[in-house]
């Protein structure tokens, strides 16, 4: 007895778990378990008037019918959660009452035919309606709670505040300002920067282009992107380094993913080694 949306997506108000897994893993086990418990306990006089087999048929039939009605109604109503997730309380209340009304009549007819009890009068129907609503709430409580949590409609525990020096997850880091300067045809996979007179040549996996600005200003706009200046005229992204070559005079040359080679000045060689780039074996 839970909700099913037409589109399963992780947005608020939409389920994260596929419908079949929610049905088989949550709804059906709870419905079956509730029917078995009610058959064993025999509430509302069913224990004294019916055999165990009759009680099983009685409660499995009623719980199954109520669960089917609940499912069909929520399937039709849950589309509203995509646009108004805050309306889930009213939706659940409406569905519960809408299911309880026909189920009350079904129970009244079953009681008259099976146990000879005439509940088809205002007072009897009112009494049955209260019982039906109560059982519906008890049976659906756990699956509905799981469903609401799956849809992100229940607030979880507030995480402790992160320390000021805690690393920011990559998904939450803003894009470096420099990347907005790149032409769309070059994409955002920045490999290296190279100073050319008053320009900076930006090298990406898709090609290169000149941008009118100083190299130091471009590097400042790359704050947050893993990389470093390796020469007075070159900056390299860490993810771009495929390997390192050593010249006979001991100087280092970085080999990038696109095959480009970038010299490392002696003043930056220690930082390159500290970053572990010299451990890369080559393209």
UniProtKB/TrEMBL annotation:
One annotated GO molecular function is:
phosphorelay response regulator activity
UniProt keyword annotations, A-Z: Membrane, Transmembrane, Transmembrane helix
Q: Which Pfam families match?
A: LytTR
Tell me the ranges covered by the HTH LytTR-type domain, including all copies: 188-278
Q: Any transmembrane segments, and where?
A: 24-44, 56-78, 90-108, 128-146
**Keyword Electron transport, does the record have it?**
no
Q: Which InterPro entries match?
A: LytR-like, LytTR_DNA-bd_dom
- Spell out the PANTHER family in the cross-references: STAGE 0 SPORULATION PROTEIN A HOMOLOG, TRANSCRIPTIONAL REGULATOR-RELATED
Indicate what this protein is called per its UniProt record.
LytTR family transcriptional regulator
Annotated source species: Azospirillum brasilense
